[in-house]
Protein: GIY-YIG nuclease family protein
Organism: Salvia splendens
Amino acid sequence: MMHMQKLIGGSDWKEHSSGAERYRTQNLPNRTSPGAYELGIATSASRKLHSASVIPVYTGQANNVRARLQSYGRSGAHLATLFADVFTRGLPIVYRWAPMESKEAAQRMEAELLDSYDYAWNKRNNGDH
């Protein structure tokens, strides 16, 4: 997977009420394609992200990862309550993704990740590690 990018800063949702986007549009993937992705919580609000300071909490796949990330950025989608809890702590949500040739390949990658790791926000088919 690619390196982590900030999707939503700790204060981005608050600034939305003044007309700003809720997410970092400039950090979205610049292509639309199937892929697998991870969402994480950066344990520091610093500008520079280090993998050691990111806690991966969710994995998923989509036919269009850019559109899926936009959905998370706009409303939090099905993770909105969890996002709100993170933002009360002033921490950002970050992501990384891997483009795939097909949705089926993305589904296989997601299944591998879920079999290997225990993501706190995934509810089904989650690893026991």
In short: The beta strands are 5-8, 35-42, 54-62, 93-99. The chain has four helices and four strands. Residues 16-20 have pLDDT under 50 and may be disordered. Residues 22 and 75 are 8 Å apart (CA to CA).
